[in-house]
Amino acid sequence: MRVKRDLARIHGIPTQDPPTSRRALLTIELPGLSYLVAGNQFSPDPLLFLPSFSKSLPPKDNTIYNPEETVMMWAQSSNGGRTICHRCLKYIKSTHRYISHQETWTSAKIRKTFVDYFKENHDHQIIPSSSIIPVKDGGTYFTNAGMNQFKPIFLETVDPNSKMGNYKRATNHQKCIRVGGKHNDLETVGKDLYHHTFFEMLGSWSFGDYFKVEACAMALELLTEVYGLPVNRLYFTYFSGDTRLGLQPDLETKNIWQSLGIPQKRILPFYMEDNFWDMGKTGPCGPCTEIHYDHTGDGTGVHLVNRGSPQVVEIWNLVFMQYNRCEDSSLTQLQRQHVDTGMGLERMAAVLQNTESNYNTDLFSPIFEAISKETKIRPYQGLVGEQDQGGIDTAYRVVADHIRMSSISIADSLLPNRSGLGLTLRIVMSQCFQQAHQVLRMPQGSVSGLVDVVVDSLGEAYPELQKNHSKIKNITKDTEKWFTSLVSSSETAFSSFVKKTASKRDHTHMSVEDMMDLHKGKYGTKVPLTIMQEMAVRQGYSFEDAAFKEARIQEQPLEQTAEQTDKLKLNRSMIESLQQRGIPCTDDSFKYSYTSCGGTYEFLENFKGSILGLMDSTGFVDEIGADVQCGIIVDRSMFYSEAGGQAADIGYIKTEHGSFRVEDVQTFDGYVLHIGHVESGELRIGETALQTIDKEHRMGCMRNHTATHLLLEGLRKVIDVNAEQAGSRIYADHFSFDFTTPVKMEADQVSQIEDFVQESICRKEPVARKMYPRDIAMEMENIIPLRDEVYPSEVFVLSIGNAESAGDKLGSTELCGGTHVTNTGDIGEFYITSAVRSKQATKRIYAVTGQHTQQVYETGKGAQDLLQKIKSGVSGKGVQDLLQKIKSGVDAKDKIVDLNESVQELKNMLDLVMPKVVRDQVLSELPLLTLSLARMESEILLANAQQVITEEIEAQQNKSFVLCRSDVRKEKQGIKLLLRLQKDIDKPLCLVSDLQSSILVAVAGPKNCSMEMEDAINQLIKTYGCGTLFAQSKGDTQLYSTDLKKRQMTIEAHADKVCEVTRTVLDAVYAAVQQEIN
C-alpha cells in the first residue's frame, strides 16, 4: 500500500483503494513504463527486484555486481523519454536505455574511494601513512594499526601547538605489519586465505569531535551507498556488557543501528574479547561495533559471526574511546571522546571483487603471475590444507605476502640484520626465499624480480616504494645470495649431524635437543629451524610438532625491552597529579645558556630555581633525607636531559639544607626530573635550588655531538649520498653513530671519512643553532628527519658552515636540539676507533674527540712501533744477522723469545681503544708477520740445533753416544737433521727437543746399535707413561724416536729434565752392554 502510494505521489497519479492481494498491491498503473535486467523484460514490480536476484548474473574477474545497483533499472517512458531510477523512484536526467550497472573495484580504487569519501563528504583531513617502524618510545614491534601514529592524541601527550594537536577529523590508509607481539600472523600466513604479515588499514578518526551516531551513519553510507554492499549481507555487532567490571551493554550503539534502518536480527551482541577495545593495560579504551560481511549470500551466516570462518568476515571495526582504564583496572569516563575505525583493505577487496579469498584479489594475482613465469610449477589455484598437494599454493601465498612485507620495510629504511626488527625482517625474507627455492623451484636470484610487481601495485599509494625501488631490489638480491650460502652451509652441518648421531640413537627421529644442537652450531654452521625442518623432512627424519614448537620458543631472542633498573620515572598518573596541582612544566631553555671565546666556554654558575616536586621510590614526598635516591623537579633548569642520543648532564643541586648529586636527567611530558642521591642534609619542597653542571662532562658531550654531524656529512660524501642516521649514543668520552646504507663500507673509506672530519675541524667552521616552525624546517634543503623521532611544533636547525655568506653551501644542516660547540675547531682531535661493516645491517661507527684522543693516539703509536719492530725482526736482513750470530757461536733464542713476546703484546693491545686505521693496519699485517716469524723461528732453531749438535759431537768424542739438548720447531725437522749429521760418526746420536706441546726424543746410529737404541727409547716411554715407538731406516743408519705429549706424561717434566733422564737411561744401557762384553 505504502509503495503504491509513494510511487503514485512521485508521478502524480491518483491512488486507488488498498488492493486485496499482493499482486494487486504491486501493480501500479504508470503509463508506458518497462523495466529491463540483463536483457530480460520483467514486471515493474519493485519488490521482485531483490538483491538476491544478482546471483543469476555471471561473475567476472575483479568485478562485483552491486546487488542493489544491479536491480537499479532505468525505466524509460514511451511518451517523452523521461527516466526513473528504480532504487530511489525519482526521475533522473539520463534518457538512454541502460541494461544493468556494474562496478569494477580495483584495490587502488577502493583505497582512494575510502579516503576521498571522508575528505569530501565529511571534512576529514587525509594524513599520510606513518612508517612501519615505530616512532621513538613507540614500542619494539612494527606499526600494526592505523591508530598508532595518533596515540599522543589519545594519551593527551600531544603538543597542542603541533600540527597533530589541531587534528579534529582524520582519514588515511596505513601500512601495517603484524609480526611479533600480541598480533603475530607470521606462522599462519600461507595456511589460510586471509592472514598476512603486511596489510593495509583504511581508517577514519574523530578526535573529540563527532561520536557514535555520526560514525555509524558514515560507515553505513560508505558501505551501502558508495561501495554498494547490500544490507542483507551485513551483520553489526555491539558490546554486550561485563558485569564484573560494572559495564552495561552498549545499547546506544544498538539503537543507532536500528535507527539507521538495520533489522534487529542483524545486530548481534558479543562479549569483551570481541567488542571492547583496550590500548594497553592502562589508558583510553571503550566498546566497539564491528561490521561483518556474509559471503554465503543466503542468510545462513549469522551463526558464523566472530567464529573465524572465511565465509563471514569482519570488514570494519568502529572503536568508541569513552573510558580511561586506571592502574587499578577501574574505568572512568574520558572528558574527550574519540572514534577510531579501521577497515582491512585486503578483506574489502575480496568482498568487492567477489571472492572469499584475499589472495584472489588484484593485490596478489600479479605477483602470482610473475612467479608462474619464473618457474615450471603450475599456476596458483587457491588450494589449502590437504588439497594443496606439495604445498604449492601455500608457497605462492608465503612468497607473495613476504615480498610485499619486505619491500615495504626496506622502503621505510629497515634493513635485514641480526637484532631487533632487522632480525625479524631477515627471518621473513629467509622464509620467502626458502619457499621460493625449495617448493616453487624459482631460479636463484629471481625473487628480487618480484619487487618490480610490488612497486607497480603499491607505489602510487606509497611513493617511498618508487623512490627506493633500486635499493629494495638490490638488498633483496644481496639477502637472497646470503640465504643461498646459508642453506649450503646448513646442509653440510645437517650431514655432519646425520653421520655423528646415526649410531647413537634412532636416526629417524629428532628431539628438541637435536634441533637446538643444530641451531646453536654444534655441527658447524648455526642452522635456522625453518631450514632444518625442511632438511629433516627431505631426509626422512620425523619430529613431533610439540618438539618443533618448543625449539621455536627457545630460538626466539629475548624481547628487546628497556633495561630493567631501579631508575626513577614519572608515570602517567604522576604527571596528571602534577598537572592537577597546577605545577608548571620545567623551563629548561637555560641549558643553552653558555658562551664561548677563543675556545673557552663559560656556563651558568649557581643557577637559581625553586624545588616544585620531590619523589622517591614510593612516590611524591615533601622532603628527603641523605643517602636516598630521589628525583627533583624545579621550575627552571640548566641541566640537559637525555635526548637525541646525547647523555644527560651531571652535576649538583644545592639548597640551604642539603646537597644533591645529579646523576641523570630525564624529561616526562615537559617535566624535567633530576635523578640522583642526597649526599648531605635534606631537601624540601619550595626551597631555592642552586644548580651547577659538570663542565668537563658537558663539554665532552658537546664536542662529540657536533662531531656526529660532521661524521654524517662525511659518510654522505664518501660512501653514499643517501646514507641516513639511525641513531647515536653520545657520551663525554666517546660516541657511537648508527647509519643505514646498502653500500658496503670499505676500510680505506673509513680513513677518508676520518680525514674529512679532521679537515672540517681544521677549517674552524662556525656552528649555529636557530629555531624554526617545524613545517618550515622540514622543507629546508638537506633536512632529513630521523625516522623514529617525534618532533615538536618548533624545532632547532643546526647548521655548520658560513651561513651568512651568500652562495656558500652549508657543510651540514640538520634538525637537532642538542648542545654543541660554537666552532668546529673547538672539537679538537678526532679519531674513528671502530666501525662495524656489513652489507645489509645498520652500520655503526665509534669515535673519540678532544682530550680523550690523547690516550687513543698513544695506544695507536705504541702499536705501530711494535709492528715496525716485528717487521724489522722478521725481514730478510734480520734473519741473516741472526744466522751469522749463530755461526759465531751466539745463542739466538733470546731474540726469538723477544719477538714472540712483542707479537703477544701487540695482540693484547687490540683489546685497547686505538685509531681504527691503526687497528686495521695491525689486523692486516700481523697474521703475515706471525707466519713469517714462525718460519724464521723454525729456520733459526734448526740452524742453532745444527750448531749445538756439531759442537756436542766434538765435545763428546770419548763417549759411547752423543746426547744433545736443542730445540727445533717440528719433529720432522729434528729427525731429518739427526739423520744427516749422524752419518759422519760411528756411534748413536741422540737429540732431546722441546716442541712446545710435546718433547721429542730421537736417537740415530749404526744398525749394529739398533738393540741398544730401541731399548733406551722403550724405557723412556715406560718411564713417562706415554709415547709410541717410531722406527726408520736410511741406508746403514737406524733411527728410533718417540713424541712424549706433555699432557699425557705421568711424571711432570720439562725438556731439560727429560734430557737428564735420557742420559741416565743411555748410560745404563751401554753399561750393561759393556758388562756383557767383559
Automatic annotation (TrEMBL):
Xref: PROSITE patterns: AA_TRNA_LIGASE_II_ALA (PS50860)
Entry annotated with the keyword Ion transport: no
Ranges where the Alanyl-transfer RNA synthetases family profile domain occurs: 105-859
Alphabetical keyword list: Aminoacyl-tRNA synthetase, ATP-binding, Ligase, Metal-binding, Nucleotide-binding, Protein biosynthesis, RNA-binding, tRNA-binding, Zinc
Keyword RNA-binding annotated: yes
Enzyme class, broadest EC rank: ligase
Pfam families: tRNA-synt_2c (PF01411), tRNA_SAD (PF07973)
Function: Catalyzes the attachment of alanine to tRNA(Ala) in a two-step reaction: alanine is first activated by ATP to form Ala-AMP and then transferred to the acceptor end of tRNA(Ala). Also edits incorrectly charged tRNA(Ala) via its editing domain.
UniProt similarity note: Belongs to the class-II aminoacyl-tRNA synthetase family. Alax-L subfamily.
Domain notes: Consists of three domains; the N-terminal catalytic domain, the editing domain and the C-terminal C-Ala domain. The editing domain removes incorrectly charged amino acids, while the C-Ala domain, along with tRNA(Ala), serves as a bridge to cooperatively bring together the editing and aminoacylation centers thus stimulating deacylation of misacylated tRNAs.
Official protein name in the record: Alanine--tRNA ligase
